[in-house]
Task: structure prediction
Amino acid sequence: MINFQYLRAGSTEKALALLAKDKNASFIAGGTNLVDLMKKGVSSPDKLIDINKLPLKDISLEEGHIHIGALASNAAVADHALIREKLPLLSMALNKGASAQLRNMATVGGNLMQRTRCGYFYDITMPCNKRKPGSGCGALEGYNRMHAIFGHSENCIAVHPSDMCVALAALDAVVVIGQPNGERRIALSEFHRLPGKTPQLDNNLKANEIILGVEVPLNTYGRHVQYLKVRDRSSYAFALVSVAAALELDGNRIREVRLALGGVAHKPWRLTATEAFLRGREFDPALIREAANRSVAEARAFKHNKFKITLAAESIVQALSEASQQS
Amino acid sequence: MADNKEKPGTPSPGRRNFLRDSTLITALSLTPGAVLKAASEKADERFAELFEKIPLRLTVNGQAHALSVEPRVTLLDLLREQLKLTGTKKGCDHGQCGACTVHVDGERVNSCLSLAVMNEGKEVTTIEGLAREGELHPMQAAFIKHDGFQCGYCTPGQIMSAIACIREGHARTRDEIREYMSGNICRCGAYPHIVDAIEEVQKTGGKI
Result:
């Protein structure tokens, strides 16, 4: 690992001031992704600003939403009584991510900021437009079994690896961002970007900003939620496809529904058209099958990941069915 | 592996100290910018290294340490290379295998992905800190009883993780144990015996 200058920030203002001083500075919280990237030589900041002392660990019930501080660990959120009761989908998604050790270290803000696990991004001897703009995409004609089937571009077909973000996208979460002179809010589904011509940009956080937390609106899905994660082994692996599903049922009628996919795009893939299709209809197997087929109609696969289209459709069917049966 | 003895031809401690001290004085007289520039150009690595080491206080297995480390040193390397606590193993060094699992302030973490300097003021427990007055920790004893290992390389991490798994309340069923132990890979495949050991310790209900 290339050495760097290490600083600790005691307040958000100090953290932002330190960040503004150096173009190649980076915040570090849990470090589970950044330290790995630094060991691999993918990332080499001159300066690391340790933000763990910032007072951003709170998880609290507010007017109409639950606030989760950016520095709350993934384990603390997943196991928090308030989250388990009010946002079980988020708890499920978090517990299906990484390992118990990593969940103790990794933070909510870091989870939002984590980078793709595309092998070509991680291997500095390979071309990668995300790591080195203009160098090409190794995955496009390479081994692309884990890669995107939605929203990709000729410059990048990597996927965002988070489970937490998929659940948060389905739950209409909002990211709270600190700036030198205030705050701003952005819908989580607008936080991450599609690769387009600028795959080096994972998200819309600006260089002088810091994530303060997320706000998740209270909802009426109750226990009718499911986070289904399909992977190469039964635990501790990134998703081939994952589905976050939430239903509000009135008898058999679908009053409200949320659906988002993970492992298929450069960002959590919210299925708003499918939600609109399902809203107000009677829940039955034929309808769910039709919804799943519609959801993948626009999918475009590559040489090694064609299976993901079928897998995504089948996973949507399973997740919605299981969500409807939860009690 | 590590040979602490002086090798023939290496400078004597006196000369080494003189070099270190005099270099440090030179370093301190320069501006940080110049030092960083020297470091980036690798003009004088030794010089830069001395300047960039920062103080770190932490407690390991109940013993307080006042150390000086480079920011890039991981907690794993600090334990193994500086404190000579080699029970904690380096497997993948990328947070994928769990061999480096230790407890920091009572929580299990991958020490390979934790920068040592980020553990200022914290309490670290490693496999060496488990036994009490010559008595094995119940989890250590259970691993032996149930043959929870073959080559043993993953074992310190497995045991640290297993203790945390019970303390967290995530060892109520065999399935739950398997799920919450998935961050510890055993290439010998001792998994069924590891689960046996954890299940037994969990069922005894004692404080671990």
Q: What stands out?
A: Chain B touches chain A at residues 36, 39, 48-49, 52, 54, 70-72, 74, 93-95, 98, 101, 107-110, 113-115, 117-118, 120, 161, 164-165, 168, 170, 178-184 (CB under 8 Å). Residues 13-29 of chain B form the longest helix (17 residues). The first strand of chain B starts at residue 54 and ends at 60.
